[in-house]
UniProtKB/TrEMBL annotation:
Belongs to the glutaredoxin family. Monothiol subfamily. InterPro entries: Glutaredoxin (IPR002109), GRX_PICOT-like (IPR033658), Monothiol_GRX (IPR014434), Monothiol_GRX-rel (IPR004480), Thioredoxin-like_sf (IPR036249). It comes from Luteimonas chenhongjianii. Residues 16-81 form the Glutaredoxin domain. This is Glutaredoxin.
C-alpha cells in the first residue's frame, strides 16, 4: 500500500482525523495545541490523531495529497476542513460543534 493509499485509508476509516505535530495529550506546536483544544471544546472525544513527527512519510506526502501546505490538518467525514485558523473560526462560529455533533449522531 502506497503512502497516499495509507493516508486515504486513515481518512476513510475515521469520521474525524487530525494530522498534527505531537499527540492530543502532548501537542508539539501551538497550532496543533489550539486545534485540539477547539475539538475538545466542540465535544469531540473519539477522533483519530496522527502524529506527523513520528510518521515522516505522512508529513512529507500529506501536503501534496490534500493540497494544504501546513499542519495541523483536520478532516471530517473525509473532507479537508483546514488547519488551525479555520478550525478556530468554525469553533467560534459554533460550526465545529455542529460538525462534531453530526459525527456523533452518525
Amino acid at each position: 500500500m502506497s503512502i497516499l493509499e495509507r493516508i486515504q485509508a486513515e481518512i476513510d476509516g475515521h469520521a474525524i482525523v487530525l494530522f498534527m505535530k505531537g499527540t492530543p495529550q502532548y501537542p508539539m506546536c501551538g497550532f496543533s495545541s489550539r486545534t485540539v483544544a477547539a475539538l475538545h471544546e466542540a465535544g469531540a472525544r473519539d477522533y483519530r490523531a496522527i502524529n506527523v513527527l513520528e510518521a515522516p512519510e505522512v508529513r512529507a506526502n500529506l501536503p501534496r495529497f490534500s493540497n494544504w501546505p501546513t499542519f495541523p490538518q483536520l478532516f471530517i467525514h473525509g473532507e479537508l476542513i483546514g488547519g488551525c485558523d479555520i478550525a478556530l473560526e468554525l469553533h467560534e462560529a459554533g460550526e465545529l460543534s455542529r460538525m462534531v455533533a453530526e459525527v456523533a449522531a452518525s
